[in-house]
Amino acid sequence: MSDGKVVKVALIGNPNTGKTSLFNRLTGLKQKVGNYPGITVEKKQGFCKLNETVKAEITDLPGTYSINPTSLDETLVLDTLLNEENETFPDVIVVVVDVENIKRNLLLFTQLKDLKIPTILVINMVDQMKRKGINIDVPKFEERLHTKVVLASARKKIGVEELKSAILNYKELDTTPVSKISTKIDKDFFTKLKSALPEFPLYKSWLLITQNQEFDFLTDTQKKLVTKFREDVVCIRRYQHKETIFRYKVINDILKDSFNVDASKATNLRGILDRILTHKIFGYVIFALILLFIFQGIFNWASYPMDIIDGAFADLSAWTKSVMAPGTFTNLIAEGILPGIGGIIIFIPQIAILFTFISILEETGYMSRVVFLMDKIMRKFGMSGKSVIPLISGTACAIPAIMAARNINNWKERLITILVVPFTTCSARLPVYAILIALVIPNKPILGFLNLQGLTMMVMYLIGFTAAIASSMLLHKVLKVESKSFFVIEMPNYKIPSIKNIFYEVVEKTKAFIFGAGKIILALSIVLWFLASNGPAKFKNAEATIKAQTENTSISKEVFQKKVASYKLEHSYIGYMGKTIEPVIAPMGYDWKIGIAIISSFAAREVFVGALATIYNVDSDDGDNATIKQRMAAEINPKTGESMFNFSTGVSLLLFYAFAMQCVGTLAIVKRETNSWKWPILQLVGMGILAYISAAAAYLILS
Questions:
Q1: 3-class SS at 151?
Q2: CA-CA distance, 693 to 647, in Å (whole number)?
Q3: CB 684, CB 477: distance < 8 Å
Q4: Which sign, positive or negative, has the C-alpha torsion 252, 257, 262, 267?
Q5: Nearest to residue 684, comparing CAs of 665, 701, 702, 667?
Q6: CB within 8 A of 20, min separation 6: which ones?
Q7: Is residue 629 within 8 Å of residue 453, measured between CB atoms?
Q8: DSSP 448
Q9: Is 57 strand, coil or helix?
Q10: Is the alpha carbon torsion for 537, 542, 547, 549 positive or negative?
Q11: 587 by DSSP, 3-state: which?
């Protein structure tokens, strides 16, 4: 029995083996998520009570097909198991395999076993054994694999207590390797390797010389020895190939003795469904219908709770002003902090609904079919089949869409997806598009049944999607990011979704957004409030100035307050920023007022309309869009004497918002997902340059 208080457990397995379900079953809500030091891959950890005095700290490592990494996730698994100084280096490894794909899954197990770390084999989904006609001789299996074998079903809670007992008694486990690769490949080579690095198990030394990466835990002498062995590249590649062949021979021999499948008892429903869902025509039609349903749900179902949240925070801000003494502190809370928090919380319904659907698709096994279906198309643009969901999710909101890119294993494909998702037209752009199209596009029918304004809106969506595809092709050629691209796709069995797993996944993703991007959004919202609510002398003397200007006119108190608010905004710090950038934005056809709206809309794109409403002395909370449009339509450009929002300026603004990164929340989540400010800054600058050139060119051509 373990004599320590905490047993460190590494949970490892191929994708789609039910590893996450088992992790959730063992840990429940006693979980935490955080990035590994220095890299973007998340680690999921949880605690499990083994007895009254001992608990297990379980680290759910990313799914991997072998210990020879081809992606950042798989590299993480290797680093965790080779570096004994790593905080997550395990006392015991729990390898989860799928009972229906046991032959392929055992390749990883035999590799891990050769590291001489105590290892337990969990054969998951055993509740399906009878239906599939599978029989396992467990004692013989344990004898041949030199380990403890646990038959389990995370869904049915079968084998969980037996697994806990095995973890508790991990020191009693046999660490004998399953296969002795040295004698079967090149005995002399491996004898030299063992002599050179005697302090390591032989297979660990083999992994050190076969991986094209630096290992910081090695001494300078060890690094030199490893480098010397790596020089014979052709030999190492040939030996790696021989190793894989030999391991499968060993696995075949073991399975012949202890594993049996009676095909007459198995069903063929999976094959029928696969032929339909991956059909070259019907597969795409079914996927399109599913997406239509998902995004109808995101737009329709999320709107009600989002309206409630929005209204609740507006009421809370008003209530705060009514019960607290007037002053800077009250304004900070009512106009800065509370709206900032509201701007975070309001995204929760969209995030929760989106990830509920994604989790259901993953749990049922359908998501793997989508990836298989779309991979050939998306790879032409530097992405993969897994990029489809984030790209289409971006039509609701770029923030959850970028979070959905975590499913992409290849780092370059994931990075390209993250960088191009903001081009897709999100719901935050809709208020901007709606009012600008209403101002500059005639409301007239086309072909008798199509509306010109509606067609323009559709064109804006197409422009966004085209920009995403074109930029992904460019990034694929320009980005010099090292990554290996192998299309390995698991076709798991179709399963009934686990409500518990879906709940944990949604809670985890929502928490990640609130405590990750949320902190940055809140901080920047407070900064924007400060800039708009403070200014030099003219700002402070606003009431006296307006009073002097209107002393000979009769105006209502409400109109007076609006004039004061407009004057303050013009002479606030953010107002001076607008005046400062006016020469820069003038080529696009904008004045300082539009400049203020653009600066304000960095908090969120939809702020543009509200900012203009304030600037033009219109209460943006009254919901009277016609009045806002009338005021905007009546605004005159003092330099040209024409309407400020004419066709050329309107098209210029539409293109600017189609391409510009006008969303602090998106920048924050890109920073979080890439674990660096480098990529969001490049994204901001690149999209900004494209937006500026497009808008200026449109204004110049159309003027």
A1: strand
A2: 18
A3: no
A4: negative
A5: 667
A6: 60, 501
A7: no
A8: T
A9: strand
A10: positive
A11: helix
Q: Which of 255, 236, 71, 63 is nearest to 145 (CA)?
A: 255
Residue with tokens 């700290």, as numbered in its chain: 57
Radius of gyration of the chain (CA): 30
Domains of the chain: 6-179 (3.40.50.300), 182-262 (no CATH), 517-702 (no CATH)
**Helix (H) or strand (E) run with residue 261 in it:** strand 259-261
Over residues 370-409, the pLDDT tens digits come to: 777 777 777 777 777 777 778 877 776 788 788 778 767 6
DSSP code of 498? P
Which structure tokens are listed for 198? 């005697």
pLDDT in tens, 77-90: 888 888 888 888 99
DSSP codes joined into one string, 272-309: HHHHHHT-TTHHHHHHHHHHHHHHHHHHHHHHHHHHHH
Question: Using CA atoms, how far apart are residues 123 and 150, in angstroms rounded to an integer?
Answer: 6
Q: How far is Cα of residue 227 from the mean position of the Cα atoms in its chain?
A: 37
Give tens-digit pLDDT for 508-541.
Answer: 777 766 776 566 666 766 776 788 778 888 888 8
With both helix axes pointing from N to C terminus, report the angle between 557-570 and 573-585 in degrees, rounded to the nearest 10. Answer: 60
Which run of H or E residues covers position 58?
Answer: strand 55-60
Residue 703, both tokens: 């003027």
The Cα–Cα gap between 97 and 17 comes to: 6
For residue 529 the two structure tokens come to: 């409030």
429: tokens are 């752009």
Location of structure tokens 């990750």: 516
Instruction: Give residue-wise pLDDT tens across range 197-210.
Output: 999 988 899 888 98
